[in-house]
Amino acid sequence: MNRKLESLTETFGLHAIKADELLAVDFEGRPALDYGTLNHRLTWRELVRREPRLAELLQEARTVDDSDPHFCANAVWYGYNGYPGLKGRLCQLVGWDADTDDPVLRTPEAYDLAYDTIYDALPPCRDCGCLRLG
Questions:
Q1: How far apart are CA 63 and CA 126, in angstroms?
Q2: How far is 21 from 5, CA to CA, in rounded Å?
Q3: Global pTM?
Q4: What are the pLDDT digits (tens) for 92-125?
């Protein structure tokens, strides 16, 4: 049994559940964890090779019209004030709820990398009244 998972089960009082059993649990229809899927650090290039539409989202984020003196990056990201929302489209491509059979694209690592890369490409908020996340 993985020592780290064994430690976690002991720390959180899950003595009745073995760590290897935790790995096999299917949470709300999501695939069970598979630590063999990623045996290296995931890169943006690999994500785009697996899902080319991610490059399109990144390009869209980079070319957002931020000429409004009260531009809000979060409006673009979450989809309000007339923006379609990049995050919703991102979730269709990567992460647990992605519409794909590719196990790498369905990982939290893929989601985090895509989220950070695309969100960080947006122009900064400017006098919009919100606190930009991240």
A1: 16
A2: 11
A3: 0.68
A4: 999 999 999 999 999 999 999 999 999 999 999 9
pLDDT digits (tens, 9 = 90+) for 11-65: 444 444 444 544 454 444 444 444 455 567 899 999 999 999 999 999 999 999 9
Is residue 40 a contact partner of residue 104, using CB atoms and an 8 Å limit? no
Rounded to a whole number, what is the distance in angstroms from the first to the last CA of the chain?
36
Long-range CB pairs of 87-90, under 8 A, 24+ apart, other chains included? 87/115, 87/119, 89/57, 90/54, 90/57, 90/114, 90/115, 90/118
The number of angstroms, rounded, from the C-alpha of 74 to the middle of its chain's C-alpha atoms is: 16
Tell which residue, 101, 99, 98, 94, has the closest CA to residue 46.
94
Rg (CA), the chain: 19
> For 66, left (φ over 0), alpha (ψ -120 to 50), or beta?
alpha
